[in-house]
Amino acid sequence: RSSPDVFESRMEKRSEVKKQPVGYSKQGEFIRCMEEKARPIFFAEGLGTKTSKGGFTKDKNLDSILNVEMVKEKSAEEIKQIWSQYFSAKDTVYAVIPAEKFDLIWKRAQKCPSFLYALPRKEGYEFFVGQWSGTELHFTSLINVQTQGETAPSQLVLYHYPELQKEKGIVLMTAEMDSKFLVVHEAQCLANQAQLFYATDRSETYELVETFNHRSSEFKYMSVIAELEQSGLGKELRPAQVSDKS
Question: Model's pTM, two decimal places?
Answer without folding.
Answer: 0.73
